[in-house]
Write a structure and sequence with these properties.
The protein contains 5 helices and 9 strands, in the order H-E-E-H-H-E-H-E-E-E-E-H-E-E. By secondary structure, it is an alpha/beta fold. The strands form 3 sheets. A 5-stranded parallel sheet has the order 4-3-7-8-9, with helices on both faces. A two-stranded antiparallel sheet has the order 1-2. The radius of gyration is 15 Å and the shape is globular. The N and C termini lie close together (12 Å).
Length: 172
């Protein structure tokens, strides 16, 4: 993980003053780092029967797609309003610097699915809590939660379901 950490850039005051943004794009552009991320993510779920990976807009699409490919699972995007073309369900949530809404196609997940919810960073947890709420409404067999980075000082796990298995590759 030290190699991955060495490829992550800190951006001060983004997206607003006082926030130190962990920029994974510098790790994603490095072939070795991207391969390590994809491999390590997939090893967490290799024997869990995962059928769908839900990636949260937008950086969650990158790791989520790689994870789905590595596991032989389908990929489902969880997007901002108005971006998905068919019937959707939505949830609103608070972020560390504002409010937002996410949506998922109503037919994206079935009761037979085992799902990994993936996003790049766990900060305050609002986005993932909303995604978990959406996917739960579709009644899959199991839901796992995964991040590449977890900012532990922000205590984002505290807003996630207590019975959910939550993993992150890197903790700051």
């Amino acid at each position: 993980m030290e190699y991955i950490k060495s490829k992550i850039r800190d951006v001060l005051d983004f997206p607003q003053k006082g926030i130190v943004f962990k920029d994974l794009t510098t790790a994603f552009k490095d072939p070795r780092a991207l391969h390590i991320i994809g491999w390590d993510l997939s090893q967490l779920y290799r024997d869990k029967g995962v059928t769908k990976v839900v990636g949260i807009e937008s950086r969650g699409f990158i790791g989520g797609s790689i994870l789905a490919f590595e596991l032989g699972a389908g990929f489902v995007p969880c997007r901002k309003p108005g971006k998905l073309p068919a019937d959707t369900i939505s949830a609103s949530y608070d972020k560390e610097y504002g409010k937002d809404v996410i949506e998922i196609h109503r037919d994206a997940i079935t009761e037979d699915d085992i799902v990994v919810l993936h996003d790049d960073v766990l900060a305050t947890g609002g986005t993932m809590a909303a995604a978990y709420e959406l996917v739960s409404q579709l009644h899959p067999k199991k839901i796992y939660i995964n991040f590449i980075i977890e900012l532990t000082a922000l205590n984002g796990r505290s807003v996630l379901p207590k019975d959910a298995e939550v993993t992150s590759l890197i903790q700051y």
